[in-house]
Amino acid sequence: MKNFFKNRTLRGNAVTYLVVIVAFVVMQLLSSIGVLGSSTKGFLVPICVYISLAVSLNLLVGICGELSLGHAGFMGIGAFTGILVAAVLKDSVSGDFLRLLLAMAAGGLLAGVVGFVIGIPVLRLRGDYLAIVTLAFGEIMKNIIGNLYAGVDSKGFHIAISTSKMKLEDGGKYIISGPLGATGVEKLATFTMGFVLVMVTLFVVLNLVNSKEGRAIKAVRDNRIAAESVGINVTAFRMKAFVISAFLAGMAGALFGLNYSSVSASKFNFNTSINILVFVVLGGMGNILGSVISATVLYVLPEAMRGLQDYRMILYAIVLILVMLFTWSPKIKSATSEFTDRVASMMKRKGAKAHE
Question: Which helix (H) or strand (E) holds 188?
């Protein structure tokens, strides 16, 4: 217990977990008593998805120091993989929860594999070059998915790049229809699974950041040459952060895809990657709790201002500027640090009195 109060990292991690758990419990209670409307309930799963995406990108951008603009590409891979797996397993797996879990796992695994394959040549680049290549990757993935056709008939599962190369027998059904995307998707996503995804993402990222590998990743970020001089394999640790980030983005994408009845490839474009990056930057580079809060607030804010149709985006831009000035102010940072230290010392004194 003494180590907990003395260790700022442990306190920060505990606060992050506590904020997420309390938010989940409050939302569940409000939903059970009928306070939340249908539109508000519709926000819950996407918020969990974007929290996971922001935290996973923060691992790559904030902790590893690599600017990636292709996160939406991994999200799209996970979304359409999850939709395909859920549709194919519909007859063989009866439980919706298990089918959703398998779909998310498949989406994460494929996104992780693609991340590893892409990372072999890409991670030899740095800075702006890496950003440009990952941007191109995201656009390539969007276009590939936009030309993909997949379906099921009596002979089994079929997939092709054009309808001329794939003919379904009578009674067959298209799952993905090229530019139209996936239609007639069975909505399996739940807020509970969204909460589980957020907790898994936090557990993976926070444990990695505070481990020996995490310290090596930070060393690579701070000084690449110094890290290499002490025997750290820079490429290997960058690859580890890249693959884990892609895996978590794929799982989030699968949950996102199974939350809507229809999903098109246009949802996973450059703007989506930029939005996720904005969540990371405004929450603070390397600040995991900041990513959780900023993803929640900045997703809800435009939806809450839909009534102000003419001024919505202007107000949103003003809020972004004000939040940036507020979060990056040295005075605000020092005041926040002082406040947390005071709270920790008060808790420490109470703990000592209780032992007496």
Answer: none
CA distance 170 to 261: 23
pLDDT in tens, 137-173: 989 999 888 888 888 777 777 777 776 666 777 667 7
**Do 203 and 211 form a contact (C-beta atoms < 8 A)?**
no
- Calpha distance 9→36 (Å, rounded): 35
Question: What's at 233, amino acid-wise?
Answer: N
Tell me the CA distances in angstroms from 264 to 50, 52, 159, 172, one per residue in order.
18, 21, 17, 21
Three-point CA angle 323, 309, 279, nearest 5°? 30
- For the chain, the average pLDDT equals 83
In the chain, DSSP assigns E strands to: 149-153, 156-160, 173-177
Q: Tell me 59's DSSP state.
A: I
Any idea which of 15-29, 186-200, 220-234, 266-280 has the lowest mean pLDDT? 220-234
pLDDT band at 4 (very low <50, low <70, confident <90, very high): very low
CA gap 159, 144 in Å, rounded = 12
- CA distances 288 to 14, 19, 161, 211, Å, are 12, 12, 39, 15
Residue 51: CB atoms within 10 Å: 27
Token pair in block for residue 9:
């990292």
Phi-psi region of 151 (alpha: psi -120 to 50; beta: other; left: phi over 0): beta
